[in-house]
Amino acid sequence: MFRPGMQPGMPPMGPQSFNLWAVQPVPGNFITSCPQCVYALPPSIRGTWWFPLLSSIGIDQYQRIYMWFMSVDRDRSGTLEINELMQGQFPGNIKLSPKTALRMMRIFDTDFNGHISFYEFMAMYKFLEMSFNLFLMNDRNRSGTMEPHEIQPALQQMGFFIQPRTAVLLHRLFSLGMAVCDVSCWVAICAFAAQCRSSYQMLFMNPYYGQMKPFNPVEFGKFLDIITALLE
After folding, report:
1. Which end of the chain is more exposed for a tag (fewer CB within 10 A), N or C?
2. What is the pLDDT of residues 66-103, one digit of tens each?
3. Last residue of a domain, one of 138, 155, 180
4. How many domains does the chain have?
5. What is the C-alpha to C-alpha distance for residues 64 and 53, in angstroms, rounded to an integer?
6. Domain boundary at 74, 106, 138, which?
7. Which residue ranges does the record assign to the EF-hand domain (predicted)?
8. Residue 210: which domain range?
9. Burial 5-18 (b: 16+ CB within 10 A, else e)
């Protein structure tokens, strides 16, 4: 069955875990299949919270993402700038708004140079793919939208354990006045939550700021509640 936003030829979704903190490597992933690729990974990427996303990319998908990356990298710089991200087509025909593209830059640009390298882009692509597939799964009436009350359980499936009030605020902040949450709204919410995760890592998992603490999803959910409330 074709679903709103689904690209023609996209296979039906099977059982899948969307928990960002429990990403499992896929057999034949590009990391195990391409040792020279792993050698080329910058150390700054290995320490990120989203590094496990790379191990969930199979070698076939790796090659497809590489071809897409090269088609968008029009100046052949080997990196993507924010305007190139906004021109790109992602899973589900997602188009990034300027604000969402900027959030993606701040999440995945590990050296803060204003450019996305190929490996950073791969993780971003996988994040958007997971976000879109989760949107499809929670669009239960196949309307191409999610109801506001579906946002909190969907975010919990990703590992964002927020309060119901926070979900209401997130919808209000990113829905652009719509009564429902379309895919652009959902991607903007996911990008905001992921950016908060990056900030949380910098603050609580960096020895520069004091004693490092293991990541606790429930504690991070409280952090996300507070940050969202500040934007109200």
Report:
1. N
2. 988 988 888 888 899 999 888 877 888 888 999 999 99
3. 138
4. 2
5. 16
6. 138
7. 96-131
8. 141-231
9. bbeeeeeeeeeeeb
